[in-house]
Amino acid sequence: MKGRILVTGGTGYIGSHTTVELQNAGYEVIIIDNLSNSNENVLDGIERISGIRPHFVKGDCTDIDCLKKLFAEYCGIKGIINFAACKAVGESVQKPLQYYRNNLNTLYNLLELMPENDVKCIVLSSSCTVYGEPDENPVTENSPIKKATSPYGNTKQIAEEVIADYINSGAPIKSTLLRYFNPVGAHPSAEIGELPNGVPQNLVPFLTQTAIGVRSELSVFGNDYNTPDGSCIRDFINVVDLAKAHVCALDRMLENDDCESLETYNLGTGNGVSVLELINAFEKATGVKVPYKIVGRRAGDIEKVWGDTTKANEILGWKACISIEETMRTAWNWQLKLRERGIM
Ligand code: UD1
After folding, report:
1. 3-state class of 343 per DSSP?
2. Is position 116 within any domain?
3. Catalytic residue numbers?
4. How confident is the model at residue 344, as a pLDDT?
5. Is residue 89 within 6 Å of ligand 1 at its C-beta?
6. Which of its termini does the chain have fewer beta carbons within 10 Å around, N or C?
7. Which residues on adjacent β-strands are paired with residue 28?
8. Contact (Cβ atoms closer than 8 angstroms) between residue 32 and residue 207
9. 178: which strand partners?
10. Which residue, 184, 308, 173, 307, is CA-closest to 241?
11. Does the pTM of the predicted model rise above 0.90?
């Protein structure tokens, strides 16, 4: 065993895939999750894939007493990966206080408890949203940070700054800020995947629900952008590839003396793919047609953004390797599994 890792929000989409990869790499995982946007059954999926059931605490990271109890019960936690956060851009505009309170109080509590519990390091799930509408693509970790366009995006920017200030103050911890591009797809086993509440706001879950007939038509938000086919461009990264980067980041902080106390990495594929290209990739990979129509632009959307991932490739020794077609196949197999289980 490599040591104990606390994964907050570990029954969620990225948290569950990361738990599998941590266990595969020999870490012992303790999950804390309030199940506000996930389900305890996810633990069964994780166990079926990795053969190990992670420890599970149902609790809220904004409750510091709950975290204190957790650290008392599970001694010797070496690192934290913090996924516990609200993540819907639109909802954050409607409920800003909920977003600031939840996402930031969670972080403050974790940071405060780290030194006294001898927890050495924390990985923050941040986002390419910090780059806003970039002046040029691909963006590097040194590209300018733009004013956030939503409270959700702002919580990511503030979280990055809080960690930097805490480390600058001399706190005895290390941190890695991981800026995700657009995580998509599911585990190839179809045992775990994304399970959005209600009508999906993000492209891929809406697409797969349309392909299976739960939704009648996918709306493509705009074909008049300054891009080759007029639709927006994103860097769609396979969730398993993404999960593996967290293991690399933890290994580096725990085992490598060269590691700085604060490091930041872009996690993407390095390639931009348009919304229309993504629909094509899905149809090619699965043979299933996706009914779609072009509608007006969605307010607040970025025209194009993709990441330069050289730093993660060279320093973390990590590279996204799963193709977009393969990723679309996993997203589809997950959707089929949800239907089989009568969930969707
Ligand atoms: C947003 C956030 C990102 C967050 C991600 C997942 C911003 C700028 N981006 O990414 O930080 O990590 O959500 O929560 O805050 N689209 C359609 N039809 C749909 C849905 C989407 O055409 O039904 C298009 C969108 O216009 C966009 C692309 O698909 O061009 C991707 O959209 P989405 O999946 O919602 O992710 P982002 O907005 O890129």
Report:
1. coil
2. yes
3. 152
4. 78
5. yes
6. N
7. 4
8. no
9. 125, 265
10. 184
11. yes
C-alpha closest to that of 326 among 290, 284, 291, 289 = 284
Which among 295, 289, 278 is positioned nearest to 212, based on CA atoms?
A: 289
Domain count of the chain? 1
The alpha carbon of 255 and the centre of ligand 1 are apart by a number of angstroms equal to 36
CA of 63 to the centre of ligand 1 (A): 31
Look up residue 260 and give its amino acid.
Answer: E
Residue holding tokens 């990511």? 156
Rounded to the nearest whole angstrom, what is the distance from the C-alpha of residue 287 to the centroid of ligand 1? 24
Which atom of ligand 1 has the smallest separation from the CA of 232?
A: 30
Residue 242 forms part of a structural domain: yes
Nearest-CA residue for atom 18 of ligand 1: 220
Output the CA torsion 60→63→64→67 (10° steps).
-20
273 CB near ligand 1 (under 6 Å): no
User: Ligand 1 mean position to 46 CA, how many Å?
Assistant: 27
Helices (H), 74-136: 89-94, 96-116
Beta carbon of 206 within 6 Å of any ligand 1 atom:
yes
Q: Domain residues for 19?
A: 3-185+236-267
In this structure, the residue with its CA closest to atom 30 of ligand 1 is: 232
Q: What pLDDT score does 96 carry? A: 97
Specify the CATH number for the domain of residue 11.
Answer: 3.40.50.720
Can you say how many angstroms the Cα of residue 214 is from the centroid of all Cα atoms in its chain? Answer: 25
Beta bridge partners of 263: 176
Q: Is 86 in the pocket of ligand 1 (CB under 6 A)?
A: no
User: Model confidence over 135-159: pLDDT tens digits?
Assistant: 999 999 999 999 998 999 999 999 9
Q: With respect to residue 205, please indicate whether it lies within any of the assigned structural domains.
A: no
Residue 220 three-state SS:
strand
